[in-house]
Amino acid sequence: MFLIFRNPLFIAPEVKELSMNEFVDKVNTGGINVSEPIIIKGADKLIEGKLKDGSAFKVSYLDNYDVTQLLLDKDIPFKVNNQKQSMWIQILVSALPFIIMFGLIFFMMNQLQGGGSKVLQFGKSRARVANKGKTRVTFKDVAGVDEAIEELREIEEFLENPAKFKTMGAKIPKGVLLYGPPGTGKTLLARAVAGEAGVPFYSISGSEFVEMFVGVGASRVRDLFAQAKASQPSIVFMDEIDAVGRHRGAGLGGGHDEREQTLNQLLVEMDGFDQDSTVILIAATNRPDILDPALLRPGRFDRQIVVDRPDLIGREKILEIHARGKPLDKDVNIKTIAKETPGFTGADLANIFNEASLLTARHNKKKISMFEIEDAIERVIAGPEKKTRIISEEEKRIIAYHESGHALLSHILPNTDPIHKISIISRGRALGYVITLPEEDKYLKSKKELLDNITQLLGGRVSEEMNFDDITSGAQNDLDRATKLARKMVTEFGMSSKLGPVTYKIDEEEVFLGKEIISRPHYSEEIASDIDREVHQIISECYEKGRQILIDNRDALTTLANELMDKETLTREEVMKMLFNVKSHKKNSQELAGVSASSASPSASPSPVSAQSSASAASTTAAIAIKDMQSGNIAYGRRSGDDIDSRDYGNKKASGKKNKTKTVSRAQKLKKNSKN
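-> structure tokens emitted (676 positions)
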């Protein structure tokens, strides 16, 4: 700052003060610079000018001295200024450098305090306060989680009318933990509470507590609860609490002292000495397994509410909410869409209508039809069509037989899922896919169902080997999923006749996120060998079972593959007509309208309590299963990232010159539909 004001712009030029005798001498001897006029300030009795060497000077004179005559005699130009300079102007000019300096300091301090950094307010909470009426989201905008809504309504009522509960001797809950998969509506529920509650609602993210400076996180926790207590009864919502509430001392490298101090302060605020507080903490996370046990005990989070993927009725209600205000065609059936989207979260369902709206605008249509919605569902599952991907005729034939193998086994096996659609049109990283859908939401899987699922997964590889006397890398994802499912049967579900009803699960927690530093099995090397043999036996038996079924129905397999080569996409109705004479062991196998359930691998919803109290490991939410020859398979609404790229597909090459054909997309169909 000192260097700035040393700049010549801020330093007044040095003025030499002359006596009257010296001034007269300079005038008489020609020492005055006549290129610029002399300024005579009559009101101040002051003469200002420049000498020949360029230096400035000033002279004070008396009233009885005739300065003007002296300058006229020597032909020196001058100007007379009889206006007296204001004292305030003089003060302002003198103080200008200091004003500028303090202005810059104030500006920099304001910048540090403003924006996202707030350097000078590190210890202050960044919670946002939402008052009733200012938010547009209410419980009417939330569907598919009726149990969670009921619990939160009771919390809201407790704050607004505590006497009703206190007469029964009930204590106000300290906290509510919302946990479940991403996209199920945990944060939306909190917004609805903010819109409905008649008390102050403070919202903050778990990542906003910890900064680079020590002590900031704990200070912000104290400030947050101080604000909430000052306006109690009130609600504090903390999103992604796992960012600050992770198990202390966990993971590789031990704990993080600053984060742990923040967690300690949070524990004290939730259940400290102040027992009369009416501040309720609502927190959300999709990683309850890594939260500290002290945070989850009763007295802190008294209620732990699962916000899971919606069931059929829940999906229907969610779709109705997202369909509000959208121009839907008469053929749009919400119930049908709900049946076609098992395992979808609320965020996925919202994305379907958004994608359908974009597709409708792209096709220059005025209303959203089932055509756009069906396309949107496939885009959400497998990605957009690859209209420019070039696939040789030989590889296209391999893909058709591969997908037909999956589809035929899906039709015949008693415990697999009827077909919804088969396609060899590339989507995302998929070269082809088979979609199967459930008739109803299922939460348990029997051993027979799991074995049939593995057999179905292996159908693509079996079909390749039967029809081309060779195999390709296209079945990599199928083999990976089949192997994982077989290993789960042996190590987690206790479905091995040799090893018995014992679990041999390896600790699979991430070393940077979990409670243990390393992952290790809890069984001997001999048991590990037995597990490998059992997994191999399951895969081999299912492979042979699938081979025998396809051999017995080879004509149907060829017919289905040829039709798929011709049309590229087959609907359920088209497949059922072609396979009408093929015996299926399913119930109601001849019905065309039904759809059925499939899931790549069952998994229990995570529980925030100890592992001993978790639900059955076979419990699962039914989800879409896609049997494909690709690298971007979807399982339970999530994209698997460990699959091969579709460019690696196709080790088998046809002899001679290949006919390069474009994988005919639905461009012409879209164009025709747009005209209609």
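The radius of gyration is 39 Å.
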